[in-house]
Every structure is written in structure tokens, then in C-alpha cells.
Design goal:
seven-stranded parallel sheet, Rossmann fold, alpha/beta
Length: 251
């Protein structure tokens, strides 16, 4: 019988999909959450509950995030507990292109990658492009505006959570491999195109207004440093994601 898998952030968007996928594969999954009643109660900042959650775990999949604010100390606490427990494999989900962007969140993700690589714990790190859910959330946040504002000249390669969960499930079943090939969505589209698809799917007739944004970060976006064209391995396209969310057939 295989040892259980601990998923940090198991109640989040990706964590829920991954947990369901692993259980469908017949794996025993422990969900780590700060909220009692959702699995193994634990705190990645204080370390409370981690030793019990990690006891006997064969793999830890680290999906939890504080959106960068405290990800580094949380990772340090998790790694210290994982070393005590003798965890044989830690899997981390990161973001394509984080080396090239000056965002605080991206710098934090890179710092966590480095902590894991230097921890002495056998590990696998997977970088993925932006999730469909994130793109949809950004568009939804503008629902009260008369127009949809988007950055001009910027392309995205969004990937579906089921595709990310499938790749992580395969990683969990294998041996630690360090940094593995990136995972990108199956298509690259401009943000303008994606915004128009979102508006059509939600029945909105608002115009899309592209704005050319200044700065190093948006120049890097326009240069496509966040894309993985050689690893367009995802299967779910954005239209399918929208169809699932809105109930409208994809075009």
C-alpha cells in the first residue's frame, strides 16, 4: 500500500481539483488547511499541526500560497517539518517566466523554488502558465466598467486546472526530478481576443479597450517571456473553460 499524499492548499482552486484527481486514481490524500473540519488542520507559518499531517506521508504537493506575502517563511516551516518527517518527495507548483518579471509575487515564487532546491529534500518543481481561472477572475473584476480594459500587445497561454492536476498526478507517481519541463495551455491568444471571448460567453456587448502599459514588466509580457510555446501540452482551451463556467456551448 502506498503512503498518503499531503496537499497543502488542498481547499484552493487547484488543490480541490488535484485532490479529486488523486482520489480518483485510488490514492489516499490528506488535505492541509487552517480551517478545522476540512482535513488535517495545520498552520504553515507557526508549524502547528504539520508533524501530524506529515507523519508517514510519501509525497507532499505544495499548492498553498499567501499570494506572496508570507510564502517564504511558510515554505521554510514546511521544509523543516518535512525534513523531520523524512518526506521522500516534495512537489511544488510554480509559474512560467518568473525569472524575468519584477513582480513581488514572482520574486517570492522564485525564492521558494530556491529554498526547495537547497533543502536537501528530493523534489520536483513544475512551472505552469496562467490558469484559466485567473484570467476569468481578472475579466470578471471589471464587470461593472463600461468597457473591458486590457494590456495592448500582450498574449497569454492559459492552462486548465484539470491539465495541471493531471500533470501533478503523473509527477506524484514518479521519482523526484528537480525542475521538469514547463506546462502551457494548448493555444496562445492576445488578451484582447480572450477578453472578447469572455464577453461573448457572458452575454456582454461592452467594447474592449487595449491600453499600452509602460514598464519593464509589461515589456516582458509583450516579449512573451511568460509563455511556453514549446510545451503547449494542456488540452483544455479557453472556450471550453468558458463553456463550463457559463453553460454556453463553445464556439
Amino acid at each position: 500500500m502506498t503512503n498518503p499524499i499531503l496537499v497543502t492548499g488542498g481547499t484552493g482552486h487547484l488543490g480541490r481539483v488535484l485532490t479529486a484527481r488523486l482520489r480518483d486514481e485510488g490514492r489516499e490524500v490528506r488535505v492541509l488547511s487552517r480551517r478545522p473540519g476540512t482535513g488535517y488542520t495545520g498552520d504553515l507559518l507557526t508549524g502547528a499541526g504539520l508533524d501530524a499531517a506529515l507523519d508517514g506521508a510519501g509525497v507532499v504537493v505544495h499548492c498553498a500560497s499567501t499570494l506572496g506575502k508570507k510564502d517564504v517563511p511558510a515554505a521554510r516551516t514546511l521544509l523543516a517539518a518535512a525534513r523531520r518527517a523524512g518526506v521522500p518527495h516534495l512537489v511544488y507548483i510554480s509559474i512560467v517566466g518568473i525569472d524575468d518579471f519584477p513582480f513581488a509575487y514572482y520574486r517570492t515564487k522564485k525564492a521558494v523554488e530556491e529554498l526547495i532546491a537547497e533543502s536537501g529534500i528530493p523534489y520536483t518543481t513544475l512551472r505552469a502558465t496562467q490558469f484559466h481561472d485567473l484570467v476569468g477572475t481578472v475579466f470578471s473584476a471589471q464587470r461593472w466598467l463600461p468597457v473591458m480594459l486590457v494590456p495592448a500587445g500582450m498574449r497569454l497561454q492559459p492552462v486548465g486546472l484539470p491539465d495541471v492536476a493531471a500533470r501533478l498526478t503523473a509527477i506524484v507517481q514518479g521519482e523526484p526530478a528537480g525542475r521538469v519541463p514547463d506546462l502551457g495551455g494548448p493555444e496562445i491568444k492576445t488578451v484582447t481576443e480572450l477578453a472578447r471571448m469572455y464577453l461573448a460567453a457572458t452575454g456582454s456587448r461592452r467594447p474592449v479597450l487595449p491600453l499600452r502599459l509602460p514598464g519593464k514588466a509589461f515589456r516582458a509580457f509583450r516579449e512573451g517571456r511568460h509563455l511556453a510555446p514549446d510545451h503547449a501540452d494542456g488540452r483544455m482551451i479557453f472556450a471550453e473553460f468558458l463553456a463550463e463556467r457559463t453553460g454556453h456551448a463553445k464556439s
